[in-house]
Amino acid sequence: MADKEKKVTQDSKVDKATTDESKAAEKVAKAAKGNKKSDKPNFFARAGKTTKKFFKDFKGEAKKIVWPDAKTVLKNTGIVLIVVTIVTLIVLAIDSGLSAGVKGLKNLALGEETTVEETTTEHDHDHEGDEAEETTKAKDDSEEVTTAANAEETTAEDEAETTAATEE
Question: Are 93 and 100 in contact (CB under 8 A)?
């Protein structure tokens, strides 16, 4: 009886192997059929399905969005404005400090040492004299223009007289 059981077990193993081989062959045949271009729908049909699925998924995701109320939006806006102001002041301070440092290094390199008192006294002089200088300069300029115009008129008159004298 042991021989019969062995034979049945061997037969079942052979049947199982044959079944596995046939399943594998079916998969290969199915894959070969699936690779044919005629089995695939055209590009526009596939694109339409994909686009339709995308918008369906998008609509589902959009429904999950929770919008904040007006009070929360105003609170967050205020926080953002405060942070932006603080960062602006920090950047301004750093910029001013670096600019002063670069000017100081430039003055040291050029051998010019200026202090705050020297720069203030340079600019404390009276500006009333400047206005008088500007007025005098404007008068001088206008006199030069007038003199040049008179010289041109004189030259034109002299030429006219010379022409008249030659014709006589």
Answer: no
The residue behind tokens 């007038």 is 146
Do 46 and 40 touch, CB atoms closer than 8 A?
yes
How does pLDDT run across 128-155, given as a tens digit for each residue? 555 556 656 656 666 665 665 566 666 6
First and final C-alpha spacing in the chain: 165
Reported as a single tens digit per residue, the pLDDT across 11-22 is: 666 566 566 677
Q: State the Rg of the chain over Cα.
A: 50
Q: Is the pLDDT of residue 98 over 90?
A: yes
Q: What type of residue sits at position 152?
A: E
Neighbours of 65 (CB within 10 A): 6
**Amino acid (1-letter code) at residue 102:** V
Residue type, 6: K
d(CA 60, CA 54): 10
**Rounded to an integer, what distance in angstroms lies between the CA atom of residue 62 and that of residue 95?**
45
CB 113 within 8 A of CB 107: yes
Contact 107/114 with Cβ under 8 angstroms? yes
> Is pTM, for the whole model, over 0.85?
no
| One-letter-per-residue 3-state SS of 58-96 | HHHHHHCCCCCCHHHHHHHHHHHHHHHHHHHHHHHHHHH
